[in-house]
């Protein structure tokens, strides 16, 4: 080979087994130490998963972490606190590891990429939707970035552009997610479960670098399709997604999704539950009219409260924006309400997430009389055509797709990207879940009182305020 670097060997994946890895190197200690995660209870599985799959620099020293990210000198160590806007001089991740200024910058670049992706994907999803929409741009972005780890040449270049990763070199994008996954466990008053899994066709050889990268950076769990499972090979995957999402998404993959042409399914599952910093009194909720964009009226349970909130009228969007923080204030939901009834589509057309992010950072404090519907929305999408329209074409092409970084000896392509999300907003707070599967087949100012009455269709965004990462996004139209 002329002295070139040797390719790491292809490694068959143990059938439905979970490996205990030596110091997170990605190498199993022994065959005897594989655990069948499907034999565990839901709580045991989550505990086992979180224990086994800490990212690489979650288990290494700060010195080694910094050596991965660059020279040690000149690195400011920035603390990541659960409270919005607070920074300390000794930042720590979920396991008490120091995060350097460079790693914080990586996460910020990743957040910027995700923001652009959020508005681009939303613009595609709204085209053929006449009712409520809810999706998790974060979940979709994670699943596709995991897949991007195995993309090469033109396929990789297209994914970089669509996912907005041009400011992050290939390895840096994955390192940024590893750092972000550490900080996501910091909150004690918001429940956030994020899990990744890869399910593979038996005997499909997987590149060692791909497998190690997903285990180390994304805490990914590996398993095989179980064609002997009662209900079909989709059942174990659906059980896993149901466990992560606390039963909110119980039947993620439909029967027949996995067949002989399916090589691999990469899954991201996300569950969020947050209690309001300022709760609504149940006794104040009453049935009130909600004015649809077609001119008709329906009745909805309208929650009410009057308190100090961050508020802004956006001249660019022609919409009022109010922020409802959750208890730890790291996470908030932002309601974007068109100033005039019947103008949601105009607001949607003007929406650019990077510009909206600037608007959200310049909100002032006001006394707000808030009226907000209690609602629950659920959406399911095939993202194949939207992703192709955004520019990810070769990934879905049987002749041009290049995922040799996943399995060099097989012609792989993405046959579909399946996404499902659920969000519920009530007097106590918000509960939301999402799952994404990439199916890979062979080939401050003076207070004033503001009346914020969300009695017509509006947009909403659930966001991590520390890193401005959009977890969930959607619209409530009053039409189920």
Automatic annotation (TrEMBL):
CDD domains: serpin. Residues 1-30, 60-94 are annotated as: Disordered. InterPro entries: Serpin_CS (IPR023795), Serpin_dom (IPR023796), Serpin_fam (IPR000215), Serpin_sf (IPR036186), Serpin_sf_1 (IPR042178), Serpin_sf_2 (IPR042185). Residues 119-479 form the Serpin domain. It holds the Pfam family Serpin. Keywords: Glycoprotein, Protease inhibitor, Secreted, Serine protease inhibitor, Signal. Residues 21-30 have a biased composition (Polar residues). GO terms for molecular function: serine-type endopeptidase inhibitor activity. It is found in: Secreted. PROSITE patterns: SERPIN (PS00284). One of its GO terms (cellular component) is extracellular space. Belongs to the serpin family. PANTHER family: GH10112P-RELATED, SERINE PROTEASE INHIBITOR, SERPIN. This is Serpin domain-containing protein. It comes from Pomacea canaliculata (Golden apple snail).
